[in-house]
Amino acid sequence: MRLNVLHKTHYTYDAPVPYGLQQVRLRPKSRLGQLVEEWRIDVTGGQVEVSFEDEHANAVDLVSFASGQTEIEITCAGIVDVEDKAGIVGPQGGYVPLWLFRRSTVLTKPGEHVQALADSAPANCSDLDRLHALSAHVLEQVPYSTDQTASDLTAEAVMEAGHGVCQDHAHVFITAARVLGFPARYVSGYLMMDDRVDQDASHAWAEAHVEGLGWVGFDISNGISPDARYVRVATGLDYRGAAPISGLRYGNAREDMSVTLQVQQQ
User: Fold this and answer.
1) What mean pLDDT is predicted for residues 203-207?
2) Kindly report the CA angle at 38 between 37 and 43, in degrees rounded to 5?
3) If exposure means fewest CB atoms within 10 Å of the residue's CB, which of 69, 113, 131, 258 is most exposed?
């Protein structure tokens, strides 16, 4: 399926910003089941200083603000051809060893709630079935809700809240999967929805490494493995390692952000 993606992130400030620098992980790469036919990133109010690959082999653009700006806009657009691989991504690549993905982070440190969730996963079945069961159980315990949209909630805090968005589901699943001994990681990307073209935000899901298959994706929020409607952009140990945009700026200006996103079949 050929997907056409248009993604704009617009920042406005109530005072001029003397300096800002952002890491932008919004450039998908061609890989098994995914061919990037064309892609561009345009910056208004700043410029791309350098492009590189991080430790997870994500494509990263380092964007600087032009001094004194009160508006910055980053526009990504392109066409990606995606095959349905039933969520199977394949062997580990990048520059880090597989064992690193068993390591907990601040956002994925297990507590009693996540431990109980992991303990409830069935043991008398295949690894793949066990992970699918875990995915379903996460959604049962943490129903989808946009009542909270904070990006810094830990997996344990999400379990205590009892609801969350796709990012929260991914963190809970990753944490529980690591408790069970599976390498697991966070994925940021795009999803073509069946009922709309315009969206408010990009999507997130998780991947776990299964012996004999490699990395396998689990979209906990939608209860499926990623198919031809999904564009993988970046991976990391958690949201912070795969965030579409992260960075710093000097000054005391108040920031407002708006997102325009369209994903549709070409």
Assistant:
1) 97
2) 160
3) 258
* pLDDT at residue 196 is higher than 90: no
The pLDDT, as a whole number, for residue 85 is 95
200, 263 Cβ separation under 8 angstroms: no
Q: Give CA–CA dist 100/226, Å, rounded.
A: 23
In whole angstroms, give the CA distance from residue 61 to residue 167: 22
- Provide the residue type at 53 as one letter: E
CA distances to 12, 29, 36, 148, 233 from 39, in Å: 25, 10, 7, 32, 12
Question: Of how many residues is the chain composed?
Answer: 266
Q: What is the mean pLDDT of the chain?
A: 94
Structure-token match 């795969």, residue found: 242
Between the CA atoms of 16, 22, 10 and 195, what dihedral angle is there, to the nearest 10 degrees?
A: -160
